[in-house]
Amino acid sequence: MAAPGDVYERELKYLLSGDEKTIAKMVKTCSDDERTAYMSIMEEPFVVVRAAGSLGMDLVALRWDFSFPIEVKSTADGILHFSRNPRLTEQAEKMKCECARSHLLPVYAFRLKGVRGDPWRIFTIPIEEDLKGNMGFLQRRVPGMRISPNGNYILRWDEGMKLSEFLKYLMK
Predict the structure, then answer these.
(1) Which CATH architecture has domain 4-170?
(2) What span, in angstroms and rounded, lies between the C-alpha atoms of 152 and 84?
(3) Digit-coded pLDDT (tens) for 55-72
(4) Which end of the chain is flanked by fewer CB atoms within 10 Å, N or C?
C-alpha cells in the first residue's frame, strides 16, 4: 500500500506532465481561469521524475526552459508548522543547501485536502542568493514560505501561489 503522500506526489507529477485524465479530474471544480491554466500545461509539459528515497525532494520537473526540484506536502489544516517535526526542518535545510550549490530554486507544493477549486499552492524556501535567468524570475515571483521568529519554517496554504497561476506564469 502506498504512503498517504504518494497519492499527491503522483497527482502533481501527472499534472505537470500534462496528463489529460488527471487534468480533467482536477479542473472539475476550478474557475475558468484555473481551468485554462491547467489545460495549458498539455501544450508544453514537463518531464517529471519521482525522486527515490528521502533526498529532501519528491519530484524533479524538467523542461527546456525551467527545471526545479519539488517537495510535496499535504494537510487538511491549511497550515504546516515544521517545528512540530524536526525531520521536516532538516529536509528543508538539506534541499535549500543542495539547490544553492546548483543555483536552483527549491520549490514546495502544498496540497490542501478537501478544497474545491485549485487545491495546490506553490512556495519556495527563501534563499540568500539572487538566482539568475529563469530561476531568478521564479524566485522573484513565487512566495517564500514563512519563517517564525524562532527560525522555523511555516507553510500557510492561503499565502502560496495557486498552481494554476504558477502554470500560467510558466507558459508565458
Answers:
(1) 3-Layer(aba) Sandwich (3.40)
(2) 9
(3) 678 999 999 999 999 999
(4) N
**Per-residue confidence band for 35, with pLDDT thresholds at 50, 70 and 90:** very high
Which pairing describes strands 67-75 and 107-112: parallel, antiparallel, or unpaired? Answer: parallel
What's the whole-model pTM score?
Answer: 0.93
Q: Which own/partner pairs from 114-119 qualify as long-range (CB within 8 Å, at least 24 positions apart)? A: 114/76, 116/29, 117/29, 117/30, 117/31, 117/34, 118/30, 118/31, 118/34, 118/162, 118/163, 118/164
Note whether 30 and 42 are within 8 A (CB): no
With cell 476550478, the residue in question is 30
User: How many whole angstroms separate alpha carbon 51 and alpha carbon 38?
Assistant: 23
Cα angle 66-114-30, degrees, rounded to a multiple of 5: 55
